[in-house]
Design a protein that fits this description.
Layout lengths: L6 H18 L3 E2 H8 L3 H13 L3 E6 L9 E5 L5 E7 L3 E7 L5 E8 L6 H19 L6 E8 L2 E3 L4 E5 L4 E4 L1 H6 L6 E5 H12 L8 E6 L3 E7 L2 E2 L30 H5 L1 H14 L7 H4 L3 H10 L3 H24 L3 E6 L6 H14 L10 E3 L6 H15 L2
Helix pairs in contact: 2-3, 6-13, 8-10, 8-11, 10-11, 11-12
C-alpha cells in the first residue's frame, strides 16, 4: 500500500516544486507559476508569501504585461542559504562556500599529507572543515549541507569511503565522523561523479538523458548518466573505463595490468611519451611532474614543442581515439564530455579526434557522435559536491 501524504507533506512538496521552478526559470510571475504547477492561484499566492517571509525568494521587478496589470517577477534569494563543498585530493583539500545558485563565495586550499595514518588525516580534514565554516560566519540554520568529493569507491547512500587507493583510506565512516562534530546533512560523492553532476547542471551535459563524462588526468575517471539518472553500478563503482585494455603489450598501469587506457592516454602517459622522445634525441630531460603543479601548464609546454611535443601528443591521441571508439560502440551516448589534459588541445587536434572516432566507430553511429570539452576545469568536482547538497534541498 502506498503511503498517503499528509497536509504538511503536500505543503513541503509544493514549496520545493516552486523553488525548483524558480531556480530553473528566474524572473517568473505568480501567474506563470500557476501554469507551471497547475496549482490554484490562491495556493500559489499563499506559498509565495510563505517563501518571501522565509527570505527564500524575492520580488525583483515588473514583468511585461500580456493584458491587464503588469506582473511582479519572482526570483530565488541566492544568499538565503549556503552549502559547503569539500574536494579531497591526495595532496590537498579545498573548501568552498557556495550560495543557492552554486556561485562560490569563499575558498581556501590546505595541504594534505597522506603519509600520516588514516585516522589522523580524517581528523585533520574535519577539524579544518570546522575552522572554515566558522571563518565564514555562517548561521548554521542557513547551512543546507556539506557536499564532499572523494576519489575512490564511495558509498553515497551511507556516507562511507569504502576504498580510496589515492588516499590509502578504507571503510571511513566520513558522514558519521563529521556529524559527531557538525550537525548538518553530509553528502559524499566520487570525484568524477561529482564533476559530472556539475557538468549536468550547468555544462555540456545539461538537458541530456544519456551522456558519458570523462576526466583524463593522471588517471582516467568516468561517470555515466543513463536514462536521466546517475549510473552507480554494483559495489559503489560507476564505470571503470580507464582500466579497459586497449594495448595488450602496452605500458604498465597503476592497477598492475598492462595496456590499460589510463596507462596509454592519461597525462602521465603523455609526460612519459614526451620524455621518451626527448631522450631519443639526447636532449635535456625536464621532470614535468616536479616542474608543473598543474597539468594544463605541462600540456601547454608540450604543445609549444613543435617537434617532440607533437609526436608525444599524436601518440596519446591515437590511444585516446581507440578508447573513445570503445565508449561510443558500448554505450551509444548522446554526448561524451571530456575534461582533463585533452581540453587544452588545439581546435584542429580536437577536430582530428572527432573525425577519427567517427571513422572508426560502428557503421551507422557516425552521424550521432558528439564530443565536447568541459569548461569546468579543476572546479568541476567541488562544484558538483555542492550541487549534490543543493539537489536534495530543491528535490521534490
Amino acid at each position: 500500500m502506498s503511503k498517503r501524504l499528509g497536509v504538511r507533506d503536500i505543503g513541503e512538496y509544493n514549496r520545493k516544486r516552486i523553488l525548483r521552478i524558480l531556480r530553473e526559470i528566474p524572473d517568473i510571475s505568480r501567474a506563470e507559476l500557476v501554469k507551471e504547477t497547475s496549482l490554484a492561484a490562491p495556493s500559489i499566492s499563499r506559498i509565495v508569501a510563505e517563501l518571501i517571509d522565509a527570505g527564500l525568494i524575492q520580488e525583483v521587478g515588473i514583468g511585461t504585461s500580456k493584458g491587464g496589470r503588469k506582473p511582479i517577477c519572482l526570483r530565488i534569494n541566492p544568499n538565503a542559504r549556503y552549502v559547503i563543498g569539500v574536494d579531497i585530493k591526495p595532496d590537498k583539500v579545498m573548501f568552498v562556500r557556495s550560495n543557492l545558485y552554486s556561485i562560490i563565495l569563499d575558498r581556501i586550499e590546505i595541504p594534505l599529507k597522506i603519509k600520516s595514518n588514516q585516522s589522523d588525516a580524517v581528523k585533520y580534514i574535519i577539524d579544518e572543515l570546522g575552522n572554515f565554516i566558522e571563518s565564514t560566519g555562517i548561521d548554521m540554520s542557513n547551512l543546507v549541507g556539506i557536499g564532499i568529493a572523494v576519489p575512490g569507491l564511495i558509498d553515497s547512500l551511507n556516507g562511507v569511503v569504502r576504498y580510496s587507493s589515492h588516499l590509502d583510506w578504507k571503510n571511513v565512516q566520513l558522514r558519521k565522523l563529521i556529524n559527531e562534530k557538525i550537525d548538518v546533512s553530509v553528502y559524499l560523492e566520487n570525484t568524477t561523479t561529482a564533476a559530472m553532476i556539475a557538468e549536468r547542471w550547468e555544462g555540456h551535459g545539461k538537458n541530456l538523458k544519456n551522456f558519458i563524462y570523462l576526466y583524463i588526468g593522471e588517471g582516467i575517471g568516468a561517470a555515466y548518466i543513463l536514462n536521466d539518472q546517475i549510473y552507480r553500478g554494483s559495489y559503489y563503482s560507476s564505470i571503470e573505463l580507464g582500466h579497459t585494455i586497449i594495448c595488450p603489450k602496452g605500458d604498465l598501469c597503476s592497477c598492475g595490468k598492462y595496456g590499460c587506457w589510463e596507462a596509454m592516454a592519461s597525462s602521465r602517459a603523455l609526460r612519459k611519451s614526451y620524455l621518451r622522445y626527448k631522450k631519443q634525441q639526447n636532449q635535456e630531460i625536464r621532470d614535468f611532474s616536479a616542474d608543473f603543479d598543474e597539468q594544463d601548464q605541462m600540456v601547454q609546454a608540450i604543445l609549444l614543442d613543435e617537434k617532440d611535443g607533437v609526436k608525444a601528443i599524436r601518440e596519446c591521441m591515437d590511444y585516446l581515439v581507440i578508447g573513445l571508439v570503445n565508449v561510443v560502440n558500448t554505450f551509444i551516448p548522446e554526448r561524451i564530455v571530456i575534461n582533463g589534459w585533452p581540453r587544452y588541445l588545439r581546435a584542429n587536434q580536437k577536430l582530428e579526434i572527432l573525425n577519427e572516432v567517427k571513422e572508426k566507430a560502428m557503421n551507422g553511429l557516425e552521424d550521432i557522435i558528439d564530443i565536447e570539452y568541459s569548461e569546468q576545469a579543476k572546479d568541476g568536482p567541488i562544484k558538483g559536491a555542492t550541487m549534490t547538497a543543493l539537489n536534495d534541498f530543491f528535490s521534490v
